Amino acid sequence: MKNKFFSLVLVLIFSICAFSNLYSHTGHYKNLKMIEMDIYRNGKIIGYSKFFFRSYENLFEVINETHFEVKVAGIKLFSVKSISKEKYQNDQLIEFKSETMQNDKKKFVNLVYNRSKDVFIIDGSSFKGNADKENIVGNWWNHKILTSNSQISPLSGSIKKQEVLFISKETLNIDNKSFEVDHFKLKSTDENLEEDKKLNFDIWLDRKKNIIVKVEYNRLGKWQYILKNFE
């Protein structure tokens, strides 16, 4: 039960579709310094996920720090502490590295873009091999997750196929601030996956700023990533 519960939460943390070409890529974030999201479980803050952006010449980097801890009846059930770096050149992901401590277990991803073969080469704790360069790393800073047919787990390097459906245009209120958003549903398309490994998220995107302001997931509790601040 504990292992399944943990797997469900890991899907929520990072995962993250063919939709439309309304949204471009890293250029939308070059004027940002930071995006910070609070992580909630059943309405209680249990941690955070912070993204830091750096641009220089034709390179763009994103550093992510994620940390949360879940306690049940005062006893720590599990914790996650992760740091990662994405590097893009002219909108193409060329490198991704991550290290994650899941309780006492280490997970990792080392990804590089091989220009001669035009593919990603992945060395991860759950997957080792080549992958199509159109895959996106499943982090919540990047609205391109809404235009991709598959995503790479930033924890382990595994690849999951996905689809994204537009739900509606809405107005979302967060900390007395109003956001005009597009509401999407992101789901796995591989029916052979175990239920606790399938993607199943509601995502709200600020259509003017191109920032994901909320992510929600319901299974063994209500999980949310909610925008706290951006600069």
| Radius of gyration, in angstroms, nearest whole number | 17 Å
Distance between the termini: 40 Å
The global form is globular
> N-to-C SSE series?
HEEEEEEEEEEEEEEE
Question: Could you tell me the mean pLDDT?
Answer: 88
User: Which percent bin holds the helix content?
Assistant: under 10%
List the domain count as a whole number. Answer: 1
Number of beta-strand segments? 15
Strand % is over 45%
Placed side by side, the strands forming the largest sheet appear as 8-7-6-5-4-3-2-1-15-14-13-12-11-10-9
Number of helices: 1
**Uncertain runs:** 10-24
Which class do the helix and strand fractions yield?
A: mainly beta
Please describe the biggest sheet, giving its number of strands, its sense, and whether it closes into a barrel. Answer: 15 strands, mixed
